[in-house]
Amino acid sequence: MARHLKLLVQRWSSRVFSVEVDGAPRYFGIREQLRGEPVPPDVFSEVQKQDRCYSLLVCSGDRVTGDRFHWELRDRLQRQLPPGSGVRSMSSFIPDQKGSLLKGYFLQSRAGNSSLIEDILTDLEQRNPVLVCSYSQSEDGQQWTQCLWYQSEDNPVRFCVVPSETPKHHPSVLNMINSDVFYSLDEACDVLKQCGDIIPETRSVLGMLPSSLDARRKPDFPVIVIEGLDATGKTTLTESLRDSLGATLLRSPPQCLSAWRGRFDREPPLIRRAFYAVGNYITAEQINQEASKSPVIVDRFWHSTAAYAIATAVTGPVSNLPHEGAEVYRWPGDLLQPSLVILLTLDPEERKRRLRSRGLMKTDEEEELDHNKLFRTRVEEAYRRIVGSACIALDASPSADLVLQQALLLIRAKCHL
Ligand SMILES: Nc1ncnc2c1ncn2[C@@H]1O[C@H](COP(=O)(O)OP(=O)(O)O)[C@@H](O)[C@H]1O
Ligand SMILES: Nc1ccn([C@@H]2O[C@H](COP(=O)(O)OP(=O)(O)O)[C@@H](O)[C@H]2O)c(=O)n1
């Protein structure tokens, strides 16, 4: 057994397990022996007596390979497993221990399916960096036990499954920095460099990077970023601002990356977020060049990268976001700071109306925004919590001309234009 797996299992009983049920995590822990009355955790409450459950946790020593494997595993399980296996996202972590998160899936076998499922899982465990556990119910139906699969033949260790309190931090928060949100160009580039062999396009992306960065250089002209959810009116406003102020209009990700964007949108979060992070630095270099000649308007920048990444990594209500003031909301030290960031806010119904009148939605994430109210509120709240270049909210519901006038007033007041 690989050394990192052995190390992992050594602290196994201090781990908490979380399973997504109806878009929010439910937690359970394990004990070597039960103290007091056993209470089955709610994850298991709807499982039938004759059913078995299984968990698969990805524990690769290499995070790029591990994340890609985890990403592809859901499709693979859904293709291979019998219908009704109910594949759910799951994770395991040591409370408050940064970097301790393992991601995986939880599933159940209906009566008669377990030998087929066990064959599939055994094969998966033998060929991949994945740790499988099985869960079974006691005769009297009062207790569930967890068994580490690789041990089950020679030295089976059974743990009792117990309910666990909701932890102080959502599990994803433990691994967010440099996995979902990157705070320096070097960290984002490290991920892309590791992908060179599997995604040849990364070489072209890295080739677009400026040779040196100077985040402290103060642009001669103001740099104004316009942020907001899809269809809040960013394109409309940025184009009008360009014309009214005689400004240069830029966007992040920059035009020069557009050929590769779709490719990275299909990758798991680690790689996708590294791509968007790098895009901001390329845009920053373009801003530096243009802001010596005229004001610059930027359509999306760092706020979009961080807010969507944070809001996607956590699940459930806004209270599951990292708390206000947390490290994840800080502006990266090596990234140019705009003079002003305006966040366009819009009533959800009006946003939907504008989306419909514009035509089809674009990214899966934007489609998710429409369906999932909780996700939308998490993105908006994450936008507001970012510090270092905090955003000023502007109501985007009046007519396009009125929104422009309001934005111009803000720009004149804050940037002395
Ligand atoms: N202030 C406004 N009032 C009404 N409709 C607007 C306004 N601003 C933009 N729109 C319309 O809403 C849709 C989305 O606007 P767009 O500028 O493309 O948003 P974004 O760039 O944020 O996705 C477009 O059809 C646009 O014409
Ligand atoms: N600077 C940026 C811009 C976009 N993005 C990502 O790109 C998606 C939105 O891009 P989009 O092209 O649909 O947005 P619009 O500019 O059309 O509103 C979000 O889901 C973000 O994850 C980012 O991470 N960083």
From TrEMBL:
The terms under GO molecular function for this entry are: ATP binding; dTMP kinase activity; nucleoside diphosphate kinase activity
EC number, UniProt record? 2.7.4.14
Record flagged with keyword Mitochondrion: yes
- Family recorded in the similarity comment: Belongs to the thymidylate kinase family.
Quote the cellular component terms of the Gene Ontology held in the record: mitochondrion
**Pfam (any one):** Thymidylate_kin
Q: Which residues form the Thymidylate kinase-like domain?
A: 226-405
Instruction: Give the reaction(s) catalysed.
Output: CMP + ATP = CDP + ADP; dCMP + ATP = dCDP + ADP
Q: Chief localization class?
A: mitochondrion
UniProt entry keywords in alphabetical sequence: ATP-binding, Coiled coil, Kinase, Mitochondrion, Nucleotide-binding, Pyrimidine biosynthesis, Transferase, Transit peptide
Q: Which residues fall in a coiled-coil region? A: none
Q: What is this protein called?
A: UMP-CMP kinase 2, mitochondrial
Q: Name the InterPro entries on file.
A: P-loop_NTPase (IPR027417), Thymidylate_kin-like_dom (IPR039430)
Query: Where does this one sit in the cell?
Result: Mitochondrion
Protein's GO biological process: dTDP biosynthetic process; dTTP biosynthetic process; dUDP biosynthetic process
Report the enzyme's class at the first EC level: transferase
